[in-house]
Amino acid sequence: MASRIAIDRLQSAQRRREAYVGPWLPEPIPADPLLGLVADPADQVVLAESISIGLLSILECLGPRERAVFLLREVFGMAFAEIAGIVGRSEPATRQIAKRARDRVRSQRPRFHPTPAQASQLAEGFLEALMSGDIERFACLLDHDVVAVSDGGAKTRAARVPVVGRHRVSRFMVNLAKRTPDGAELHALEFNGQPCFYLTLTNDDGAQPFLLVTINWLEGQVQSLVILRNTDKLAGVHLHWLAQQG
């Protein structure tokens, strides 16, 4: 029953996103409270990957029934006969759905998972190159087929289509850094099991959310950038950041 309700909700959400302005990205999940519930470091790595922006975005590319089959099989280890009854398909058809979803997820998953220390070092180099304003220096950190995706929704200005390619993304990011308003402050946070850069703007009402940048790495280079500008989705990020400030 829960799976059928979830499929119905996914189908409804999918219809709403067809009218969404620009790319749609999943809302950030604070990683530290979740990871703190898991004692084993190896299990923490698995959990961090399972809530990563990259994997959540890949799951969004699956249809509602594909996603249900994938999660029931890969996460909960249910038998195909049982899953078939839940999703209303024959067992052979369910096996095909599972294979199709599994192949799609595996083909898009990153092939390099940096340790926390490596991720921190890579992020520092990324930030230094970005703030230098040197497009060529920054481009050297990017994968040839790097993609930058911005989610601003209907309320906030953001790129309406993904920016693709090393030189286009480098120009886009350096120009974005140059256009950042005065009074911006940069904060290092962790969401979805990944290091992030969170920018706030200070006005008479105090610090306000501006954007959150998540970096996905591929063999030591930036594979993709996720730039969240949607103020509704940043509300939870801002509350989490305020709580950390004490």
Commentary on this structure:
Helix content is 52%, strand content 21%. The chain has helices at residues 2-17, 31-36, 41-50, 53-61, 64-74, 80-87, 91-108, 116-132, 135-139, 166-178, 231-244, and strands at residues 142-151, 163-164, 184-191, 194-203, 206-218, 221-228. It has a six-stranded mixed β-sheet with strand order 2-1-6-5-4-3, with helices on both faces. Helix 5 (64-74) packs antiparallel against helix 6 (80-87) and helix 6 crosses helix 7. The longest helix has 18 residues, at 91-108. The radius of gyration is 19 Å and the shape is globular. Residues 33-51 have low confidence and may be disordered.
Task: Give a topology summary.
Elements: H1 2-17, H2 31-36, H3 41-50, H4 53-61, H5 64-74, H6 80-87, H7 91-108, H8 116-132, H9 135-139, E1 142-151, E2 163-164, H10 166-178, E3 184-191, E4 194-203, E5 206-218, E6 221-228, H11 231-244
Summarize the structure.
With 246 residues, the chain is an alpha+beta fold. The protein has helices at residues 2-17, 31-36, 41-50, 53-61, 64-74, 80-87, 91-108, 116-132, 135-139, 166-178, 231-244, and strands spanning 142-151, 163-164, 184-191, 194-203, 206-218, 221-228.
Per the principal axes of the C-alpha atoms, what is the gross shape? globular
| Major pleated sheet | 6 strands, mixed
Give the beta-strand count: 6
| N-to-C series of helices and strands | HHHHHHHHHEEHEEEEH
Average pLDDT score: 77
What descriptive keywords fit this protein?
globular, Arc Repressor Mutant, subunit A, 246 residues, 21% strand, 6-stranded mixed β-sheet, alpha+beta, 2 domains, 52% helix, Nuclear Transport Factor 2, Chain: A
